[in-house]
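Design a sequence for this backbone.
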């Protein structure tokens, strides 16, 4: 039955009325609505789990190596008549100084040495299929969102292509199975300086950078103090920039490849790695829209009514190579 229960408050004459309802019994048992009853082995008013309507992407490295110091856009193969661009080099200018010549003596001709490096594009593609059934139920599986994900995949692919060139450098520092150290970084600087390079940048895997930072802790001098990136510097640098050490701009990227238990990073000088792109000619799609030439990554939709499905397809044409071997040093250390 109902009862009035006095409750102590700041006002001693105030009472709160609390109504108690009699319990409900069914077949001699006290009845209550619990989660287990509502769930009823998946057949009740509650489900085993609810999926948030926002689709979250798994962790992955989002850095773009195309924007890093030392990486050069050589050009595009569009309209060139070939899928390969060749970058020519000549031992002229500062590479060939004047020779001491006696008065009234004819100077002999010096023939420069010519060489070239080829950059050939390759096709990289990715396709995701989504049915109308999957799309209408939500969860971020609409073609517009998937198209954005494919653009992120294209940037990741381009970064993989750039990182894949690091192993092509002849000069190498570090030791297989051994953590990256300050001595290894100094060796790389020495090799690049000895080859007359400038504007050094190091691209390290996060494992390598962590090992380098650990090695810095054991140094007893401040001659090569690490300058971490400030907010102002990070705004002006590519994603992944972590700071400067010994005049070297250091970037961290997990796009750095691994082979035989070692990470293969690199320290490079200006224009050490080049890449070329290919973009299809102006293309008219079925809906009348135009894909303008000059778009490196193309994302298209292909509707399949018989399956009630939309295919979101991305294509990227890119190629990369070492511009000049002496402009870089690979850093091979324990993974």
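Sequence:
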């Amino acid at each position: 039955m109902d009862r009035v229960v006095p409750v102590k408050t700041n006002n001693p004459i105030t009472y709160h009325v609390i109504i108690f309802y009699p319990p409900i019994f069914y077949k001699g048992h006290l009845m209550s609505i619990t989660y287990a009853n509502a769930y009823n082995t998946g057949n009740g008013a509650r489900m085993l789990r609810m999926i948030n309507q926002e689709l979250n992407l798994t962790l992955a490295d989002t850095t773009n190596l195309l924007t890093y110091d030392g990486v050069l856009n050589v050009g595009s193969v569009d309209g060139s008549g070939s899928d390969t661009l060749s970058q020519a080099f000549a031992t002229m200018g500062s590479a060939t100084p004047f020779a001491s010549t006696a008065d009234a003596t004819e100077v002999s001709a010096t023939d420069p040495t010519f060489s070239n490096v080829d950059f050939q594009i390759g096709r990289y593609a990715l396709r995701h299929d989504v049915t109308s059934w999957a799309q209408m139920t939500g969860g971020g599986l609409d073609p517009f969102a998937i198209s954005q994900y494919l653009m992120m995949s294209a940037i990741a692919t381009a970064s993989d292509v750039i990182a894949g060139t690091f192993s092509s450098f002849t000069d190498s520092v570090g030791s297989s199975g051994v953590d990256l150290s300050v001595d290894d970084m100094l060796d790389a600087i020495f090799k690049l300086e000895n080859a007359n390079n400038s504007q050094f940048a190091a691209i390290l895997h996060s494992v390598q950078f962590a090992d380098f930072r650990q090695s810095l802790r054991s140094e007893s001098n401040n001659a090569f103090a690490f300058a971490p990136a400030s907010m102002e510097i990070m705004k002006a640098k590519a994603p992944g920039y972590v700071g400067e050490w010994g005049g070297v701009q250091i970037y961290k990227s997990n796009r750095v490849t691994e082979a035989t238990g070692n990470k293969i990073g690199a320290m490079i000088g200006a224009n050490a790695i080049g890449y070329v792109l290919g973009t299809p000619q102006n293309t008219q799609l079925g809906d009348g829209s135009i894909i303008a030439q000059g778009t490196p990554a193309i994302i298209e939709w292909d509707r399949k009514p018989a399956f009630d499905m939309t295919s979101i397809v991305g294509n990227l044409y890119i190629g990369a190579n070492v511009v000049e071997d002496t402009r870089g040093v690979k850093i091979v250390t324990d993974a």
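Helices lie at 35-39, 132-136, 143-163, 182-194, 206-217, 231-236.
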